[in-house]
Amino acid sequence: MVELRKDVEFTGPVITGFTPQGYKIGDQRFEQGLLISPEQAVGWDAAGLDRLNLAGILSSLNLSPPPEFLLLGSGPSMLQPPAAFRREVEAAGMGLEVMDSRAAARTWGVLRAEERWIIGAFLPLA
Question: What is the pTM assigned to this prediction?
Fold first, then answer.
């Protein structure tokens, strides 16, 4: 397992490492996809990029005020989501940043250290 160092203090869940299929937050393991906000982290039974559902992501995280943007981890490699999903995110007034899930998980810590009000949706690593 890969462990990530936490040098900056901030509130909310911190991704501290990776498991073979998923993520580690503190002592808790998520062996599937992960939805994360500044307030919580929940397991996500993601069906894949072609079946992304912004309303489902937002309702699972229930964040107020709405996030600045969605950090999307597309799985083991960087793949773009469907154009319809990108339009849905834009219509909701949010930005969208897409990268492979490992890079997105590392970026989460950097952006939260900057106190950015964001959400993350990370597809499984395997």
Answer: 0.90
